[in-house]
Amino acid sequence: MDERATRLAELVARSRLVRLDGEDRTRHSCSARVHSYAGDGSLVCWAGDGMPRTPALAVDVERARQPVPPVLARRWGDDDPATFWPRWCAAEVVAKLTGVPMVRLAQHGPPWPTSARQAVSGDGRTVVHWVTGRLGDLV
Predict the structure, then answer these.
(1) What is the pTM of this model?
(2) Consecutive 10-residue runs of the chain (139 residues): their mean pLDDT?
(3) Nearest Cα residue to 133 out of 21, 9, 40, 28
């Protein structure tokens, strides 16, 4: 990982995710304007205070224990929620940051090895680094 990616990983590690439910969702204000909704309606806001405005930032969240849809399990070769959902969230972040529709990324399975933490867009101009983690019952 290059120096820039290492610095970004350190900043991400020091930032925090905030989960908002119910009325709190309607009054939230993410400092970095980076948030995602889980399938249960929870809002997760990345409170990335001190994060640079560039590179672009994104977050995705899924319920960690929800079953993997059979069609995705077949395409991705993984029906274990513990391993599938972190990979799915990483792919969602790559899709958001590169402008590639998730339906294209998910069509044939994950577009990189499971151990990857960096992806390069098809045009070779966008490098995306990511980390995955847990927030209660969310990935």
Answers:
(1) 0.76
(2) 65 70 66 75 72 69 91 91 88 83 79 59 64 77
(3) 9
